[in-house]
């Protein structure tokens, strides 16, 4: 750890941190921090995951005057996902591998402390699926929590950067890594695991925030004891009603012991309802990508979960894509909002899945309320049957029906989904969700693959391309846009407006009380659009492509907007990992992404920069 500030500067910075009224030494203060819009105190801005700010100093009328206020180079290349935490006078930012953490003084715009963990790059990087990204930090109990790429979960003193404790959350030699941001809930820090492409069995784990001791761990598949499912209490949606899941639901749709290498990893985002004391999240694809090798529904991969924060026991679980044949990971964020549906106010969860459907469920019971396409080019399923909760497949695009070593052509969306990990935002003013989206289709050829611990367990070759049809109507057009930014009504499952983007929108958005929604583009533009109409109001080109999440906060009465730029992630893996050779046989590299995004390198290059924007004085 380095500490570059000396003397009075360090003393004044630490003094400011200690004096800041937003700092709380009790973990119960996290919720209070999120209620003060001067902070950005959790990865998604609040426990509900709405990514909404009550700040309105920057609004639809004056956002055109926005300008860069200051910037900071992270000193690291590769993909910069996630975004800054802001607690009082201090901004905390992170980097991809080697996962350096910086504490920045807002007054001096300088480094208070930095921390870089010791990790073995030769062991960790080769088993990181889709770039060396990290999606962010969490704060609680006076600590900053870093989920390292090598699965080590570390607690740092928020004032000094000193390591307080570390715990091993998995084994990289078995293909386990971590990319997600943890979440502090009560006296625990919640984290998941990555590695579905290596046959890793996913889980959610809770560690004591003071000691790092494991409190509970719930797997995505396995016997009831492993999944912490109570067959007499845990429910799911089927046959038009909320139904008990029954005994060993996490094994009885798998053949033999395949569940032990079943995937269902948990590298997305986590939300929490303090009133219900439930943690919400999604589980990923089953292993392998070749569906022929794993008959059955493969529960509970591709599912939404509600778990008790104290015990990990599963309240309800709903599988969106049974027996996944397309790598439609279900890990995307689960947003908690209260909405009127069918004339009745409901406590709901809203989830935009890789499979192209936007889901609204009752977050108390798991009842399915809405399931509609948020990109009309989606064709692998015609619709979701609301009674069974299952998608109705179009067998033309079924990779299993077409068979091993057969290339299924024209499946929409591509494996990286109609939306990937980039989190949505929600405005209570407009009652709309804002979706950073992709707009691609693919060719998908499954093949037989054997499992070896720590080795890739994929079993499919992919090529991706523009959807070639309009996202709103689904009708063919000549556009080559790979991305969309879409406003969505989750009570009806309707698109309200949608803007085309040249490349995927891989940046999480933020909606504000100023009637503005901010997001970033793969070329590197920070954009602001009108929350009601989608009209573009502002854009600025940052030094590299943006795959980070735009956050906003205030300091000394002035509103700021900040974002990490640094091209990479799955969409930018060709540039980040040097896979873009320009040759046709490299189109399938990066699990199919390289060919689709080959032209991106003409618009942006590698670089890691944190850029902060504000209105002029």
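Q: What amino acid sequence fits the structure above?
A:
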């Amino acid at each position: 750890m380095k500490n570059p500030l000396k003397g009075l500067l360090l003393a004044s910075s630490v003094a400011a941190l200690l004096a800041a009224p937003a700092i709380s030494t009790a973990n119960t203060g996290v919720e209070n921090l999120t209620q003060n819009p001067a902070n950005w105190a959790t990865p998604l801005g609040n426990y509900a995951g709405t990514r909404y700010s009550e700040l309105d100093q920057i609004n639809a009328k004056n956002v055109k005057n926005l300008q860069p206020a200051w910037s900071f180079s992270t000193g690291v290349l590769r993909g910069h996902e996630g975004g800054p935490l802001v607690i009082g006078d201090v901004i905390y930012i992170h980097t991809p591998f080697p996962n350096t953490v910086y504490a920045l003084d807002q007054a001096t715009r300088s480094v208070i402390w930095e921390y870089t963990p010791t990790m073995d790059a030769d062991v960790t990087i080769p088993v990181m699926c889709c770039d060396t990204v990290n999606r962010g930090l969490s704060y609680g109990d006076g600590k900053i929590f870093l989920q390292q790429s090598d699965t080590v979960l570390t607690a740092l003193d928020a004032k000094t950067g000193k390591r307080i404790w570390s715990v091993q959350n998995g084994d990289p030699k078995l293909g386990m890594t971590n990319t997600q941001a943890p979440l502090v809930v009560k006296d625990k820090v919640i984290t998941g695991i990555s590695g579905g492409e290596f046959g890793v069995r996913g889980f959610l784990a809770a560690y004591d925030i003071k000691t790092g001791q494991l409190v509970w761990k719930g797997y995505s598949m396995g016997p009831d004891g492993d999944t912490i499912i109570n067959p007499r209490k845990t429910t799911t949606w089927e046959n038009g009603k909320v139904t008990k899941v029954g005994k060993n639901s996490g094994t009885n749709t798998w053949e033999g012991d395949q569940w032990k290498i079943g995937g269902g990893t948990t590298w997305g985002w986590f939300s929490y309802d303090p009133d219900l004391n439930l943690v919400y999240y999604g589980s990923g694809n089953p292993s392998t990508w070749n569906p022929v090798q794993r008959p059955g529904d493969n529960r509970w991969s591709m599912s939404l979960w509600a778990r008790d924060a104290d015990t990990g026991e599963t309240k309800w679980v709903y599988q969106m894509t049974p027996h996944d044949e397309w790598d439609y990971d279900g890990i995307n964020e689960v947003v908690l909002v209260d909405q009127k549906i069918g004339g009745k106010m409901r406590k709901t969860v809203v989830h935009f899945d890789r499979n192209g459907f936007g889901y609204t469920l009752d977050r108390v019971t798991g009842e399915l309320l809405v399931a509609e396409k948020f990109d009309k080019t989606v064709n692998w399923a015609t619709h979701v049957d609301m009674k069974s909760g299952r998608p109705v497949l179009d067998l033309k695009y079924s990779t299993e029906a077409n068979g091993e070593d057969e290339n299924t052509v024209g499946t929409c969306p591509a494996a990286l989904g109609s939306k990937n990990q980039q989190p949505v935002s929600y405005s209570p003013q407009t009652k709309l969700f804002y979706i950073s989206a992709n707009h691609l289709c693919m060719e998908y050829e499954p093949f037989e693959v054997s499992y070896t611990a720590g080795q890739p367990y994929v079993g499919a070759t992919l090529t991706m391309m523009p959807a070639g049809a309009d996202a709103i109507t689904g009708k063919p057009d000549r556009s080559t846009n790979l991305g969309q930014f879409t406003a969505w009504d989750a009570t009806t499952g309707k698109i309200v407006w949608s803007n085309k983007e040249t490349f995927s929108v891989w940046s999480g958005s933020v909606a504000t009380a100023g009637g503005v929604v901010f997001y970033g583009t793969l070329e590197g533009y920070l954009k602001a659009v009108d929350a009601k109409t989608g009209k573009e109001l502002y854009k600025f080109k940052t030094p590299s492509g943006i795959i980070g999440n735009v956050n906003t906060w205030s300091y000394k009465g002035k509103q700021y907007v900040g974002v990490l730029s640094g091209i990479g992630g799955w969409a930018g893996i060709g540039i980040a990992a040097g896979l873009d050779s320009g040759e046709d046989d490299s189109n399938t590299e990066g699990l199919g992404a390289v060919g689709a995004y080959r032209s991106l390198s003409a618009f942006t290059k590698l670089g890691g920069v944190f850029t902060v924007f504000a209105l002029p004085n």
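Q: And what stands out in the fold?
A: Confidence is low (pLDDT under 50) at residues 1-27.
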